[in-house]
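Worked Example 4.2. Consider the chain below.
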Amino acid sequence: MKFVDEVEIRVEAGDGGNGCVSFRKEKYIEYGGPNGGDGGDGGDVYLIADESLNTLIDYRFERFHRAKRGQNGQSRDCTGKSSEELVLKVPVGTRVTDIDTGEILGDLTHKDQKLLVAKGGWHGLGNTRFKSSTNRAPRQRTDGTPGEIRNLKLELLLLADVGLLGLPNAGKSTLIRSVSAATPKVADYPFTTLVPNLGVVRLDTQRSFVIADIPGIIEGAADGAGLGTQFLKHLERCRILLHIIDIMPADGSDPLENAKVIISELEQHNEKLAGKPRWVVFNKLDLMLEDEAKELTDSILAGLDWKGEVHSISAFNKMGTEELAQKVMTFIEELPPEEEEVVDGKNVEFKWDTYHEGAMADDGLDDDLDDDDWNEDDYDVEVEYRP
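Applying the procedure from the previous section yields the following structure tokens:
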């Protein structure tokens, strides 16, 4: 199935049902009083995280989603039926953003996590609500309120502990194949990896972590060169980044300059991502003599002014990969528990009590049965006409 990690959709919650104007009609009861019921509430729109999904491709072809409106009120004080909520399934790891406001509505990072993205309209009032001691035959009612409409951007961000960074052909896919059961495509040409890949590194029955491999980044990626930096967002949830440096590039380029390109593109894309813990991992050491490799790696570290963690491996021959995996696992275990970012949903401004009081006091309510020749309050009052 094609990997789609970003789509735009439009969601429309259902409108509230209208209130009803009705009067009790019964034999021998001339003035039965009002019995118009309220309408039903419109359907809400929810997103729910489904772990069986791994792509947003379904929403590429079906972009408009609308919940049903509430049923109108009926006579005999019958309240209209409220509409059922509309639930849209998305992969775990989906971030939801309001396109019009730029507000992040939430991150669905857990199985079966639900997020309200559009609130249904509230029901209208029937004329029974407006009866009083001075108005015993009200003909007022209110319409249901419109449902919320939102244009949303859905972004799928992979959930991984470790992310791999590097130029094309640096050996990222080979590394993930050597330490996990994942089988991403490996070949001797650039951009073999076109979509992100995940692998589970299992050290024993109790200790494991997830590693993510994204397509290679080249100079100018922040401006759209190559595959751009669109896949860097998949590393935002990683706890540590491994910068893979090919010490003997096939194109004869300078490894130091290649490393600087990655760091520069990372900083241009996202300062928060650039500030994550990052280790330098030199790859393909089996292609050089040990002394030559040591001299080259030392010069690269000096050129980068690097003071952090450094590892030297050969992903193809699995040289040093097990030790690297063990140290990464230990580092992750020693990190403090990650605090989940909670996006505080704004309280719905609409309150039933406020709406009810406002509707009862509103002089501009629907009165489509208004009759100037009929006064509801004076049907039992004797009227004298004087010349």
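The CA atoms of residues 37 and 78 lie 5 Å apart. The two ends are 89 Å apart (CA to CA). Compare this with Example 4.1 before moving on.
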